[in-house]
Amino acid sequence: MKTADEVQNILNGFTCNREVSVEIYESYGRVLFDDVYSKVDVPLCDKSTVDGYAITNEGLNNDFLVISDEIHAGDPADMLINPGKCIWVATGSNIPKNTDRIIPFENTINSENTIRIVKMTKNSNIFKKGTDIPKNTKVLDKNTLIDEKAIGILASIGMDKINVYDTPKVAILSVGSELSEINEVNSKTLTAIVRKAGCEPVFLGVVEDSIEKITSAIKNAVLQYDIVVTSGGTSKGKKDYMFEIISSIGDILFHKVKSIPGMPIFAGKVSEKPIICLPGNVASCLVCGYAYLLPMFLNAAHKTFKRELVTADLSEEFNSELGIKHYFPVKLKDGIAYPAFRGSNMITSIANADGLVDVSENEVKVRKNVKIWLI
């Protein structure tokens, strides 16, 4: 039997390292496969930061300058500023190569097609080529989680596609002949956990209590998916075959964990693919989903797992068993945490909870200033 930390370390040893190329429009929430370097300067050329007039330094010696042309945003700027002349430019437009500064429109007096400069600014009002991002600069690191800011950078350097880690595909199997007679819950809650981690869930259906059928389903699943999760068949009943099956077709990574609920959880490896077998009780299954699978799935997708914690006093003292970790569901009200657990087979034990009290193996009594993991 492993500790909770040992189990998590084992599960976090599996990652999905396939590379895929996706459109920038579809890249939000994905993780970069490589460092990204800009192949261009941003901006690509010098641009005006104001509406005004492009001039050369020699033009400052003239009382008046003749407006010889106009450049709007998106127009080419393939002309030059001739002596005694200026060119009207829009904010964000390209500017002639021999421009030394832009005089803002409001700093001039216009008379037909000429201007007179009445006020100078300290800066040139020129957004120089490569000022934002110089060519060949690394703009994003490998393993960066792509958000709206990263997408802005990728778009600014002209990338239409980007290489990211492929999304891990998680197969879900519910085991138990009795499930055809009731409203099956675990596959739905586990599907939500998979999606919460940004992975792709695939429900393969309910498999009846048959060694042959369960074995066949698992063998087929590992050929197509990165991770396989089952619920049910992990306890000591006469038809709880999961441990026997995984032992016969693969390797056992751990059997049982020193935590409650969820002690019967075990995992194996078949064809190098991890198989995580969860207890069938709905509350235990979902707690295991939060405690072990969510961090595992995020890690497999090269993402970071972080608990949102708050501190509160318990409404009553909780007594734990030394050497056993407890995940204790609680309901928060007015800064007090009230017990929500009603039994491993009751979905309301976890569905009505705001968080889980993580009672470590070294604690036997907790009441004051308890850290609660919000779920």
TrEMBL record:
One of its GO terms (cellular component) is cytosol. The keyword Transferase does not apply. GO terms for molecular function: molybdopterin molybdotransferase activity. Pathway: Cofactor biosynthesis; molybdopterin biosynthesis. Residues 171-299 form the MoaB/Mog domain. The keyword Coiled coil does not apply. This is Molybdopterin molybdotransferase MoeA.
